[in-house]
C-alpha cells in the first residue's frame, strides 16, 4: 500500500485518538486499549514499509504518549518525576533520534572548522577565544600549570557558577530555535568552532594529553549542549515543517517537545558542574586510568540514556503490546 493511501485510510482514527490524549479526555479503558492495539499495529506496519517517513515519526510519538496514558497509575503519579526520566521521556525522545543525529553532525562539522582553521592560522584561536583568555593560558603553560584556571576559586562557588551558566546556555540554545532554527544552528556552530580551536590550541603547544582534564566535565557538558541544540531544532523545524498540523499547532507542539528535551538535561548539567567544581581541579594529579575511566563512564551514561535506552524501551513496549494483543 502506498504511504499516502495508508495515511488517508487511518488518519481520522489517529486524530481522534491524539485529540483524546492531548485533551486528557476520559476514554473507556476498553476503547483506549483497542485504540492502542490498532495504533501499535499501524506503527509496526509503518516501520516495515515506511522506515524513513514522517508517518513513522508521528506514530512513534503518538504511541509513546498512549503508552503513558495506559500504564500510568495513581502510585506512579506520586513518583511523576521518576516516571518522567525513566519511562515517559526516553519513549518520547526516541522519535527525535534522527534530529539528534543531524544536530551532532552539524556540531562536529563546526568542530572540524575550528580545528582546521587553528592549524592553518595561529591567530584564529585569539579571534574565537579572545586575547585575554589566550594570554592567560599561555602564561599558565609557561608556568607549568596549563590547567590552572580550573584550580581557582572555591569548589562550591565554581560548581554553582558553572552549573547555572551551562543551564543558561542550554536554554538559550533551545530558545534560539524560535528563529526558524537559525539561532540554534548559530549557537551549535559557535560552540563547535570554539571547542575545535581550544583543543587544537593545546595540540599546537604539544599538550593535547592535558586536555583529558577538561574532558572530565566536558564529556557531559558538550554532549548535553548538543542535545539542547536538538531541542532548539525540534522547535524551529516544527514551524518550518508542520506535517499534518497547522503551523500554529505544529509550533506549539514543537515548543512543548523541545522544552521537555531541555528539562531532561538539567540533572546532567548539575553532574557536569559537580565534576568541574570538585574533580577537574584534581585532574593533573589524578592517575590517567582514573581520569579516562570517568570520561568513558560519562560518555556511556549520555549515550545510554539518550540513544540506547530509548531504543530498548521502545522494543519492550512493542513486545508488551503484541503480547496483550495476542493474549
From TrEMBL:
Pfam families the UniProt entry points to: SpoIIM
Membrane-traversing stretches: 100-119, 156-180, 187-208, 214-240, 261-283, 289-308
InterPro entries: SpoIIM-like
Domain of life according to the entry: Bacteria
Keywords: Membrane, Transmembrane, Transmembrane helix
Name this protein carries in UniProt: Stage II sporulation protein M
Lineage: Bacteria, Pseudomonadati, Bacteroidota, Flavobacteriia, Flavobacteriales
